[in-house]
Records
---
Amino acid sequence: MKNQYLEKINPVLNEPVFVKMRKLAEEQNIPIITEDGIHLLLQLVQIGKVKRVLEIGTAIAYTCIVLSKSTNVEVVSIERNPEMVSYAKAFIDEAQVSALVTIIEGDALEINEQSLGMFDLIFIDAAKAQYIKFFEKFEKTLLKGGVIVTDNLLFHGQVEDPSGIISRNQKQLVRKINHFNEWIVSQEGYNSHIYEIGDGMGISIKK
């Protein structure tokens, strides 16, 4: 449940391009990061003096545009949906951040991660069933002390309470998310914790 007091008192990202993107996402039911989720990322970038971010799952590029425009961080983002890539590139031009944001069109699991360079922060917000594969593939590009952030780990409360799920596919997806959650907090090479922020966000710091 959203905290109405915090919604009222916390600052909102009100740049016209951000508002326009949120409106499009709502109208077309395109999932983007929550308001508290993007603020958490912004603070992680600033606290950690992050210079390069890798994002798995661009959608319309809301996250990478907000990060780059607000903090001047360089973002490389991977998206396999051509329609989303088209939206993303148009918004990147509109936001005037093309010098900072690079979109790679393709399946993240088929991309040569060694060609991407090294990153201070990785944000995973793509196919939930593939989270372990994404993590294991791209952690090779994460600098020591870097952070991997994973989104949607509570999946609308269904991971905690799957009793109301009817769809077999949905049940399978929720089981995979729960498996990832158990897996990530047990990884000895990372200090990981899952927070009840947005739809559930995991923060994993590379030791």
---
Amino acid sequence: MPTLLETASKLDKMLDVGWADRTPISTDNITFDQVAGQSYLETKFIPYTSENVTINSASQKRERTEGVLFVRIRTPMDQGIGLAYEYAAVITNVMNNKNPLPNLFTYVTKVRRSGDGKDGWFSLICDVPFISDET
């Protein structure tokens, strides 16, 4: 059974391997040197609810956590929306409906617009929902 740390690490690794160095990735709570005008991803691991669940019998209790891996795609303004949506397609292909560890599952990624571009970036957010059972 994965722990929350293992869940976060596995989701980050799945994205990192599938992303294959297309752009730099800024990971939550790690120093990131952004290069002006260079597209990048920003990720945050967000567990948002936990509950006790019983599987088959009372002796098989687990803590079930649901949350999202938040991925913000940042592409420079005035270059159209195509690149950002291409990146979103890569993320959904890499992360949708996966079972990378026992009792860790991802669901369909939700893509949405973010911001108004006044910060110099066209931004999309990809929320990768997950469920993880810890013993």
---
Amino acid sequence: MIFCISSGGALIKYAKKHKVPYLQVPSGMPPRAALPYMLVPLLFFLEKAGLVTGVKEELEETTILLEKISEENGPETLTRDNFAKTTATHIGDTAPVVYGSGFSAALPIELSSSLTKTANQRLNGVFPELDHNEIVGWEAGEQCRYFS
């Protein structure tokens, strides 16, 4: 079974021409903003195909959780009660670095990409490919600051 999810253009024209079921999502967004529009329909399609279950319930729970996190980390929440502000304060003038391995290998790449776009900082690595020279470079200690 073929199903098309697109923001328009040639792909939608192709789907219409060949009578392929499609969902047209809003266009003109950067990829990080378009992700929910691409992911949610895919999840419902997977459920319809019998590959996953409980999508609606999980999305409802996710929405509630994201609203709570958004409220807790909003601009009006005091720094001492706001994880996002506290983290930003601790980062200060340092360069945040995220490493990953296996299942989490995509995390450092995505977070690094977001940091590049929003803070003009970019450092990442994936184990085991993480180069020995990079690890040695951090041994100086002064530029490293860990917090929890």
---
Amino acid sequence: MTLAIGGDLNSAKLLLGIAHPQPKKEAGKKGSRIRSVARGLAAEPEWHEPVRKAGAAIETVRREPEDC
């Protein structure tokens, strides 16, 4: 307090911070949205690909490009 009275700005800021603490800022909208998407994906059940037998033929489907 003596330093703040003597004109030390950092000491004055420290005293004000102790006397009147600022509420914590919430995360930005973008960060919150990303976290909620990540939580939603983490909550989904794990997907397991069906096991294929060795040597089984893999079918391919060919599709012609569409004209725009």
